[in-house]
Amino acid sequence: MPDERTSVTTPDAAPSPLLTAHAQLASAVEILGYDDGLHRMLATPRREMNVAIPLRRDDGSIELFSGYRVQHNISRGPGKGGLRYSSSVDVDEVRALAMWMTWKCAVVDVPYGGAKGGVTIDPTRYSTAELERVTRRYTSEISPIIGPERDIMAPDIGTNEQTMAWVMDTYSVNRGYTIAAVTTGKPLAVGGSLGRATATSQGVVHAAAAALADAGVRLDEVSAAVQGFGKVGSHAARLLHEAGTKVVAVSDEHGGVHAPDGLDVVALLAHVADGGTVGEFEGGQAISNTELLALDVDVLVPAAVEGVLDADSAARVKARWVVEGANGPTTTEGDRVLAERGVVVVPDILANAGGVIVSYFEWVQANQAYWWTEQEIAERLEQRMAASYGAVSSLSRRESLSLRDAALVIGVRRVAEAHQIRGLYP
Ligand code: NAD
After folding, report:
1. Which residue, 86, 158, 225, 248, shows the most beta carbons closer than 10 Å to its own?
2. Residue 7 domain-assigned (yes or no)
3. Whose CA is nearest to atom 23 of ligand 1?
4. Does the beta carbon of 155 sit less than 6 angstroms from any atom of ligand 1?
5. CA-to-CA distance for 419 and 344, rounded, in angstroms?
6. In this predicted model, what pLDDT tens digit does every residue of 186-230 receive, in sequence order?
């Protein structure tokens, strides 16, 4: 593919997330029998913005950061996707994440395209005031291409509810009135939705329960390990624990903790809320992230970063189910190894879609200025996750596809249909 934005360079052995995303799309395109022109349209981001973000630090010095917003597809509705702050963010990672958002929104049939944003910054090294200035400048720079009808942001790695409040405020102040629907995952006080903070994790638990049910197994009969103890992983561990699953290990970027008889997840949450790292928790033995992935558990939930399940680590996985809380945690080779070994992978674009489903609810509520109860949100989330899982699972059985290929086929086909029905302008 000659377009620079669809080319993928891999400087070292580790496949880039974009390479994985392109390989997944190619697999779906082959199953669907689409021609090269349509493949190229589906592979290429519609719009991208690269911005320089100068920051005046608290000590008066100036630093510059790179920021990106990629709108991979906007054929089914506005772009939708998170904003990531991490020192490893680059434009190819943002492109991959934006593409996954496109398929995800289509799989769960919310009326959005896919987008993603990122700033190459380690947020742990900057004060709250500095992060606010970075966020406001980034928002101002990309403001021509975002908005409730154009592209709606949400939290991702390194960002949170407060970040979304700053984005919403900056965008609103510059337009002269409050526009709550420009972001989701906001605090309740400024138009956030009940249930949004735990929606991704709740969706992961619904997806896990549905996959287990296909094999006649219940959540309270299994053990689990969760990688990542941030917004997704911590609530996934807690909700699994509440559902009766024996959560034996969790980790963060510094390492993990393992208790074969089950962790006291509530005490661990309190320990982390007090500023501790997962590995320092005294209710179990310290383990590495590599060891966590290879634990003898039934369910493995990668809920941290991309590419952790490659061919090597996948060969050591003992879990029977991998439920992808993170985006892109499994490489193409990792997928192949897991499939050969009979591990059921519930793919990211389905398993972690609870977040975008409730983001959609938040956007609908903000547009209507009419708020739903927590129960309404929980019920509608559960219905949409069940319907989406059911469609993917039955296509997978009918056509002998992996759950990933089945989800991709459903998502890619919906986006392609939108392209074809709208027609090519001019
Ligand atoms: P977060 O920043 O709140 O938490 C990330 C967690 O991962 C932290 O515990 C961090 O210590 C850990 N981590 C980082 N690097 C790691 C590494 N190399 N090994 C092990 N652990 C590591 O981020 P989050 O919002 O929980 O996002 C986690 C994943 O879920 C990402 O892939 C994100 O794209 C995806 N996701 C998030 C949402 C959402 O609503 N927040 C929705 C869908 C998907």
Report:
1. 225
2. no
3. 157
4. yes
5. 32
6. 999 999 999 999 999 999 999 999 999 999 999 999 999 999 999
Q: Can you give the residue range of the structural domain that contains 284? A: 199-351
The 3-class secondary structure across the chain, one letter per residue, is CCCHHHCCCCCCCCCCHHHHHHHHHHHHHHHHCCCHHHHHHHHCCCEEEEEEEEEECCCCCEEEEEEEEEEEECCCCCEEEEEEEECCCCHHHHHHHHHHHHHHHHHCCCCCCEEEEEEECCHHHCCHHHHHHHHHHHHHHHHHHCECCCEEEEECCCCCHHHHHHHHHHHHHHHCCCCHHHECCCCHHHCCCCCCCCHHHHHHHHHHHHHHHHCCCCHHHCEEEEECCCHHHHHHHHHHHHCCCEEEEEEECCEEEECCCCCCHHHHHHHHHCCCCHHHCCCCEEECHHHHHCCCCCEEEECCCCCCECHHHHHHCCCCEEECCCCCCECHHHHHHHHHCCCEEECHHHHCCHHHHHHHHHHHHHHHCCCCCHHHHHHHHHHHHHHHHHHHHHHHHHHCCCHHHHHHHHHHHHHHHHHHHHCCCC
Pairwise CA distance, residues 215 & 162, whole Å: 41
232 and 312 co-located in one domain:
yes
For the stretch 38-71, pLDDT in tens is: 999 999 999 999 999 999 999 999 999 999 999 9
pLDDT at residue 8 tops 50? no
Overall number of domains in the chain: 2
Atom of ligand 1 nearest to the CA of 304: 7
Please tell me whether residues 321 and 259 are part of one structural domain.
yes
CATH of the domain at 217: 3.40.50.720
Supply the residue whose CA is at minimum distance from atom 30 of ligand 1: 326
Task: Give the pTM.
Answer: 0.97
| Domain match, 86 and 136 both | yes
Contact yes or no for 173/98 (Cβ under 8 A): no
Instruction: Convert the pLDDT of each residue in 16-28 to its tens digit.
Output: 999 999 999 999 9
| 116 given a catalytic annotation | yes
> d(Cα 228, Cα 253) in Å, to the nearest integer?
7
Residues 175 and 225 in one domain: no
Mutation choice for ligand 1 from 119, 305, 346, 348, CB with most ligand atoms inside 8 A: 305
**Distance, CA of 326 to CA of 17 (rounded, Å):** 12
Same domain for 252 and 160, yes or no, is no
